[in-house]
Amino acid sequence: MRMSLNFHSYVIAEPQIVGLFGERGLGIGSLRFSVMFTLVNSTEGDPAMYIDGLRATVSVLPASGGARYLGAGEFEGPHILRRLPYSGKLTSLLRLDLSENQLVSLDEFSGGGGIVFQVTLKGMAHSPQDSHAVEDVLQYRLNLSHWTEVMGQLEFRDAFVVGVEIPANSAPEFTPALQFLRAARRNLAAGEYDAVVSVCRQALDSLAVVVESRDSVTTARASKPARAREHSKLQRALALFESVRNYSHLAHHVDELGRPEIYSRREASMILTTTCTLVAAAMEW
Fold first, then answer.
1. CB atoms within 10 A of CB 150
2. What is the C-alpha to C-alpha distance for residues 107 and 75, in angstroms, rounded to an integer?
3. 3-state secondary structure of 79
4. What is the overall mean pLDDT for the chain?
5. Do 241 and 212 contact (CB within 8 A), yes or no?
6. pLDDT (tens digit per residue) in 121-130
7. Contact 185, 193 (CB under 8 A)
8. How many CB atoms lie within 10 A of CB 217?
9. What is the pTM for the complete model shown?
10. How many other CB atoms are found less than 10 A from the CB of residue 123?
11. Rounded-to-integer distance, Cα 32 and Cα 117, Å
12. How far apart are CA 201 and CA 198, in angstroms?
């Protein structure tokens, strides 16, 4: 994709993202985009033109809908892109600093299918006659393997990224449970792990109201064999549902000394992931 100086249709530089890696800081993580500018050569008689004041913003692209803004990036140094009698290349690192919450949200956003970044470049183009703003939008797609490598560089090396898809046309009775799940996901990103488990319990309670009256569930419960090895897949799924519901029950109570139960991020992630999967599975029960 080209960054164009719209002055007599001259092109000064053609930028592209050629790489991305992560770097861990103190309490933050940085994404480093390697941006290469191919400088277009001038010919005799062309006016002297150049671009300076380069800056960038970075977003991520969802499967549908508009871009989600991440922040403003910073190039490693000031650059001037100038047309010369010969073509050339200039490579610069664009750094984007991200908070812990943003890193967690990015990890969740990627799901199981990698991630697409959108980098919007802006600058000022100058010619002997005029100066005006120019802009170009670049995209950089990472597959799951590359994204996992980047997350490892950000010290998320042991994170397993698993996507749980919720059908867009889910029945209206599942709406409350889905709303609870979205709230739990926000709590996880905010580091409120006890709240994650508590809200997941509410999601499971809401799910119970929906599925308990279904014929398939009623039949599965009534015909449950005494021997565990003879249980059907649905009967085993219902057992998992009850186990997770039982585990999250403590989030609504205090112990004998009046203290609340404390949950870690791993425990909250376990309950949120399992609850999401149960809600999605229950739509087919």
1. 20
2. 24
3. coil
4. 83
5. no
6. 999 988 888 8
7. no
8. 20
9. 0.57
10. 23
11. 12
12. 5
